[in-house]
Amino acid sequence: MKETVGATGLILNEPLLWEKGKKGRCGYSLPRRDVESFLLDNELTGECPDFPDLSEVDVVRHYTRLSQWNFGVDTGMYPLGSCTMKYSPKTNERQAGLSGFAGAHPLLPTGLSQGTLKMMFELERYLTEITGMDATTLQPAAGAHGELTGMLIIHAYHKNRGAQRSKILVPDTAHGTNPATATLCGYRSVQVESNENGILSAKAVADLMDEDTAGIMLTNPNTLGLFEENIREISEIVHSKGGIVYCDGANLNAVMGIVKMGKIGVDVMHLNLHKTFSTPHGGGGPGSGPVCVKKHLEQFLPVPRIVEEKGNYAFSDNYPESIGKMQAFHGNIGVMIKAYSYIISMGPKDLKMASRLAVLNANYIKESLKDTLDLAYDRPCMHECVFSDEKQKDDHVTTLDMAKRLMDYGFHPPTVYFPLVVHGAIMVEPTETESKEDIDKFIEAFKAIADEARDAPDLLHNAPGKSKVRRLDEVSAARKPCLAG
Amino acid sequence: MKEISELNLPADLRYADDHEWARLEEDKVRVGLDDYAQDQLGDIVFVELPQAGDTFKKGEVFATVESVKAVSECYMPVGGKIVSVNNDLEESPELVNNSPYGDGWFVVINPSNPSEMDTLMTSEACLEKLKGTE
Predict the structure, then answer these.
(1) Size of interface A-B (CB pairs under 8 A)
(2) Which residues in A lie closer than 8 A to residue B98 (C-beta atoms)?
């Protein structure tokens, strides 16, 4: 392999702000006081918070140095499976920074926030159209919060019919948040095993679905990056027993505007704007997890809802069957503006094209690496593909070793050890962001790592060797966590 | 990870499909996680145990084990009442890795139907099954 992007640079150490500075140092000149000084009542005063005394350059260098330790999608390829770490276009930030949006307060009267309300109203409609559902709420603050909203809607639906149910079907490939959400809503999760092709069979669902089961919570495409081809039949089975089909939209990036979820039997789903719709993800959040429903569940959506009359927008609480509020205010507005900006700037054709390219990129990686790494399910994938460390077993090199070594080559590691149905899973999601040149470099890096596994396994056992810190002691961190610094 | 030939599956124990072991101690049954399971899970960082007095049927979830790789549930190898639990695992979950059949035991059960022990595998049967999955 020729030169890689991974290199050692001069990375500067940086202490905590409280260990920097000097008493009396100040980064700001206050204007001269032009009013009489006045003592506050004792009960209004107290000890000052413990802030360090720093100059402007102390602060700027501190955060600049910290940012240089970081790796983000602006730095390089971030193929974290099921997370859709796509590039966040800078125009999104610009729109969200417009003073009319950025300066709006959630308690402003609606007459003074028509622009923000119109944006939200239209975003709801765009998301409804992209998913092929009937109505959308933007309130949930992130994916798991969206799941909770969706599950509360299912709960409200059964309650409204006068017969609550006790179970939810959850496939063995599900994200851990799915059974957690079901449990939080008082349901017991019943695991459905995926078949030899990595997807659900209609029979497996039919065997478990009964009239005490509130519905099924599935992810489509699933976490193996495979499309649940039997979704229509599965939906019919669940519906015939009076159940609801919930779709976790974590992997919507494979099918934006292509699969009409409402038409294949999904009754309620959540989206992750911070995945599919290019808003910052992870530490750069916050997120946003809108929930889309079909007509028969619309009455249960959270309030207040945005309504439009003759071009005027207002909030309405007049939905007596609603599950209530899911947020103190109206959701993470800044994230919504960024997603709105993305949808508008892409347009319907390019949104579909983005999904197609995401799928093409994943299949290209799958085909290019399947002789190097064991491929769990050798069939066309959607936006991500799942390998394992099976081929490296005799070299005594694990998935974790290879993931750590990938850092030395300048790539963020993929998702590892998930989904649980694949031992030593390596789950790669390139997204549409990456060019062929960058994907080729990634493939080349993985091939070089597989060679090292055979010829110099200690390079992998001791990886990463170029990063600011070496391999972290995850075991001690988990067994004896020290959260206070 | 260990080769099948490196596994330690003592002959005086019985084994469940999900790799819990069970040892008859007079009229009680001591239960833990076998060498294969602890090896597959990797470094165990947390064990959630039931309380003494809880009753479970055979096959019901009685404990949860968390490793750096995954969270797994443990199923009762025989049904009965929990008479004692290994509280040392709370502070030192690594005992499961270091001593799966000794200090890393999970619970002691007062079995409601001691003949359920006969439904469990012997160490040879367990080893044969593992060879079959290779």
Answers:
(1) 20
(2) none
**8 Å CB contact of B70 and A420:** yes
Asked if the C-beta of A27 comes within 8 angstroms of chain B's C-beta atoms, the answer is: no
> What's the rounded Cα separation, in Å, for the pair A396 and A392?
7
User: Which positions in chain A touch B46 (Cβ < 8 Å)?
Assistant: 478-479
Residue whose pair of structure tokens reads 């969270």 in the numeric block: B71
Distance CA A259, CA A221 (A): 10
- Domain harbouring B76, CATH code: 2.40.50.100
- Smallest CA–CA distance, residue A384 to chain B, in Å, is 20
Selected residue of A475, A476, A480 to mutate for chain B interface (largest B Cβ count, 10 A): A475
ipTM: 0.70
Q: Where in chain A is the domain with CATH 3.40.640.10?
A: 91-345
pLDDT digits (tens, 9 = 90+) for A427-480: 999 999 999 999 999 999 999 999 999 999 999 999 999 998 899 888 888 888
- Cis link prior to A304 (omega < 30° from 0)? yes
Give the residue-averaged pLDDT of A194-201.
95
Instruction: Count how many domains chain B has.
Output: 1
Q: Which CATH class is domain A91-345?
A: alpha beta
- For the domain spanning A349-479, the CATH number is 3.90.1150.10
On whether residue B1 sits in a domain, the answer given is: no
Q: State the residue range of the domain holding B63.
A: 11-133
